[in-house]
Design goal:
The complex is a heterodimer of chains A (169) and B (343). Chain A is mainly alpha-helical. Helix content of chain A is 54%, strand content 8%. In chain A, strands 1-2 form a two-stranded antiparallel sheet. In chain A, strand 1 and strand 2 form a beta hairpin. With 343 residues, chain B is an alpha+beta fold. In chain B, 46% of the residues lie in helices and 16% in strands. Chain B has twelve helices and ten strands. In chain B, the strands form two sheets. An eight-stranded antiparallel beta sheet of chain B has the order 2-3-4-5-1-8-10-9. A two-stranded antiparallel ribbon of chain B has the order 6-7. Classes of the chains: A mainly alpha (169), B alpha+beta (343). The interface between A and B is large, with 42 and 48 residues.
């Protein structure tokens, strides 16, 4: 097939356009295709459209949220407002809208676990937090085993870490 | 700005390398959701983290509140890539910290509380990353960042969450455009989590054959991975671009050279040049310089002219002349080129 536009080169770009149920087909060579605006790959594409389309693609939980009028306790941001703008209100919105955001994040990102840089200060808090969680698990096991001496020791270490944590905050 | 003044590694294809981090304070609402008092407080805190007594870089940075500048002066910062167009959407709340070499700039209250970026000339993503990482640590030692152990750095828009990092390379790709390969490259790139943008970032058109390639995904990948992925792709594009240029010179012969020299002729002798023609001509002449066809003009000069030829720059630096020709930027642009190339 030859290009419909120049009638010289072979048509390598094929496009079907449907506007108001009217179908038009185009068969062009790359050169002519590039000249036509139909093939403008640089149409600016807004993030809002992206979010809207991501959220309207039938994730079942979404439909429920439309009625329940979810909002963030910390900043008052309404979930429906986020859907319009694609912008959250404050860092706490991530917790408030966790169930809604995770499926979206999973789609636009590579998973939902950060594996990059950990800030030193916030990170040291994170490390303390992780340590406390670990010790608490050990404490529970020690109590179950009725190893009370060990449990007391663990409890003291947890208290110490928690004190450090509250001082840092 | 260093990337405008200097030519960096692989400068025949890569104009600049940029790393950007998005960071937020844990205790304040994001900029689109903040009132004036909170916005002011964020500006003052970020300012103090860099310019305060405890900061090791306090003598290296300058502070600018956007509301103190005219729209034209703000536009000049955008044209130099010191700040994003979005920062200027809300001058009443926005501010900027810039280091002396104008390599690192820290935007305050853009979409996130802090958007810091480092732009290096040529192909230097690692250098840009290390410099920015250092500034990030300095700010973080003073301010409570909003960080989640699962989602990483929390950002206003979930497209930036995780590392909050955008790495991008600005490339001049006339060879791939002329040989008709650019569209397929753009399509291939978008399939592997990278995006292609124009000279002025998101939503801007790729004029003058200049493209910015950057990562789209920010969560679930480390900073090193983002950079090495981008580098791997960039290296392939650089190689293909160089091959395309060689092919153009080989197959185009005198016609190709004629086209390049005519571009220089028009650029240096035209009396009126609009933005689109200007960017097209600069691209052709730059290609000529990089291929050793044109001598006596450097690509460094061309980058400088490219920035000076942007509307806000012209209207600031040629204020008086402009008044006499009823503000026609296309005429003054032609004049500026002649001055800069000593014609």
């Amino acid at each position: 097939m030859l290009c419909q536009e120049c009638q010289k080169r072979p048509a390598t770009v094929h496009m079907t356009k449907i506007i108001n149920n009217k179908k038009t087909e185009l068969h062009l060579c790359e050169e002519c295709a590039e000249k036509r605006n139909d093939f403008n790959w640089f149409t600016p594409f807004s993030i809002n459209d992206l979010f809207n389309s991501l959220m309207d693609t039938g994730i079942p939980s979404m439909a429920i949220d439309r009625k329940s009028n979810l909002y963030c306790n910390s900043c008052g941001m309404d979930y429906s407002q986020f859907k319009k703008t694609g912008r959250l209100g404050c860092p706490m919105c991530y917790k408030a809208f966790n169930n809604q955001l995770l499926p979206i994040i999973r789609r636009i990102q590579k998973g939902t676990q950060h594996i990059g840089k950990i800030p030193k200060k916030a990170g040291s808090e994170l490390n303390v937090y992780r340590e406390i969680q670990k010790l608490k698990a050990q404490l529970k096991k020690a109590v179950e085993r009725e190893a009370f001496e060990e449990a007391a020791e663990l409890r003291d270490r947890i208290r110490e870490l928690e004190k450090r944590q509250s001082q840092e905050n | 700005m260093r990337w405008i003044r200097e030519e960096g590694p692989l400068g025949d294809v890569v104009l600049s390398s940029r790393i950007r981090f998005a960071r937020n304070l844990a205790d304040s609402p994001f900029p689109p959701n903040m009132n004036e008092a909170i916005a002011d407080a964020v500006v003052q805190r970020v300012r103090a983290s860099i310019l305060g007594d405890a900061s090791p870089v306090k003598d290296d940075y300058q502070f600018f509140a956007m509301k103190d500048f005219s729209p034209r002066d703000r536009q000049i910062m955008v044209e130099k890539h010191l700040a994003s167009p979005d920062l200027m959407e809300h001058p009443e709340r926005a501010a900027l910290l810039v280091d002396k070499s104008e390599q690192i700039s820290i935007m305050i209250n853009e979409e996130d509380h802090i958007r810091m970026q480092c732009i290096c000339p040529g192909y230097q993503l690692d250098e840009a990353w290390h410099s920015l990482d250092n500034i990030d640590d300095i700010i973080e030692s003073q301010l409570p960042y909003s960080f989640d152990e699962n989602l990483g750095y929390l950002t206003c828009c979930p497209t930036n969450v995780g590392t909050g990092m955008r790495a991008s390379i600005m490339m001049h790709l006339p060879g791939l455009v002329i040989t008709g390969n650019m569209n397929s490259i753009i399509q291939a790139i978008s399939k592997i989590g990278l995006t292609v943008r124009g000279l002025y970032g998101e939503g801007s058109e790729a004029i003058g054959n200049i493209y910015q390639i950057s990562n789209q995904i920010t969560l679930g990948v480390s900073e090193e991975e983002i950079i090495s992925n981008l580098k791997a792709i960039a290296q392939q594009i650089i190689e293909k671009e160089r091959m395309a240029r060689e092919a153009l010179v080989q197959n185009g012969g005198i016609k190709f050279k004629d086209n390049i020299w005519r571009a220089l002729g028009t650029l240096t002798h035209a009396q009126i040049i609009d933005m689109r023609e200007f960017m097209t001509l600069i691209s052709k002449v730059r290609l000529g310089v990089d291929m050793g066809i044109i001598e006596g003009v450097s690509s460094k000069q061309l980058t400088e002219i490219m920035i000076l030829g942007q509307p806000a720059h012209l209207s600031k630096y040629y204020q008086e002349e402009l008044a006499s020709i009823s503000g026609d930027l296309d005429i003054i642009r032609a004049k500026m080129i002649k001055e800069k190339l000593n014609v």
